[in-house]
Amino acid sequence: MREVRLYLSRDKLSWLMYSSFFLSLLLVKPSRRPLLAVHYVHVDSPSLYGLYYRFLREEGLRDADEAVFRGVKALPCVVVDDQVVIEGRYVFARGALRLLKWYPFIDVLAFAASSALLVATVLGSTYAAVRLFPGAPGGLLAVLALLAASVAFAVAFYNVYVAALRGLVRVFLGALSVDPGRVGVPLDFEKPRGCGDVLAVEARALGLSANAFDAVDKARTSILLGRHDWLRCFLAAVDIALGRVKGPEELRRELEHSHELARSLKASLEKKVSSIGGWVCPSCGALNPPGNATCRACGSTRPIAGLEGLGPVHVDILRILYSMGGEATHGALLSRLGYEKPQVVDALRALFARKLISPALMQYEGRPVLGYRLTGEGAKVASVLAREASARRAL
């Protein structure tokens, strides 16, 4: 039985989502109910409500316990069945699991109370208008009063609903003796260096059609890079939080769990993008698309594969061999290098170990002498070095 993930918001998602959620619980056939995992994220776009509702109706639910009572961990960017990508601001698990467990029911109760209050206000204002002005045309006055009250209803409903919800949450926290400090951890007391507003990215959705993957490859790469930026900055923010938060041990454990989860997701993204030619900047850690020669975050030059850990002596040897047709005698190489002999010998050993050059027996003035030849991999690296040198001279 496959798992279907539902992503909800406990901060901004309207009552419509929860009413649809509970309606779906009643309508879905038991035979079509796969496992449903609930995660909480920020959702700012009302157009997403219908999307979530469709997932509920099409994918089904196993039961209310699985839908509501599972542990809640929000992910910054998620993929649902490779069809919809959702990015949003991170909402840290609120800590009090009992509150998380019952929050949807508190939400429905707040909605019911708000609706009852405002319906009573509409009916009461209409009745009062007719009673206070008995001489006026009752029908017309009642209609006008009803329209005015309905407008007030629409304007005031959300504020009344939010106030009722907050009040019920406070009452519930008090009844459970839950310390509000355990309910959430703010991660914005200091922005990690180089992150800017990455941690405040607005929620958005991008539909990916199975028949048009070629057309959205660029968008998918952009999403992966944005997700990596978020995870990189989130890890830095959690490192700061772990150093400053003096909360209970449970809170630190949640932070550490989130840190480990984000680190694992970041490594997975790096592996995915690297498999298509992307690269991770060694200077700032940003992930870059395959076509970038410089880092999109800090401007550092892309490291050349095969030269990691090699110094200027190694680079000069490769360049000289490339300029001499890919091979040179030991004497010719030494004569063109401006380094001490021990440095050159150590560099040659390192290049042998990396299989970038190989020894070769050559002829010099009719006598056999030792020489060096670029391997296939060494020739690739040396050609990149030569192109870079030409580009710098052109500047």
Automatic annotation (TrEMBL):
The chain crosses the membrane at residues 102-128, 140-161. It comes from Thermofilum pendens (strain DSM 2475 / Hrk 5). It comes from the Archaea. Coiled coil: none annotated. Gene3D superfamilies: 4.10.1060.50. The keyword Metal-binding applies. This is Zinc finger, RanBP2-type. Keywords: Membrane, Metal-binding, Transmembrane, Transmembrane helix, Zinc, Zinc-finger. Residues 275-304 form the RanBP2-type domain. The keyword Cytoplasm does not apply. The lineage of its organism: Archaea, Thermoproteota, Thermoprotei, Thermofilales, Thermofilaceae. GO terms for molecular function: zinc ion binding.
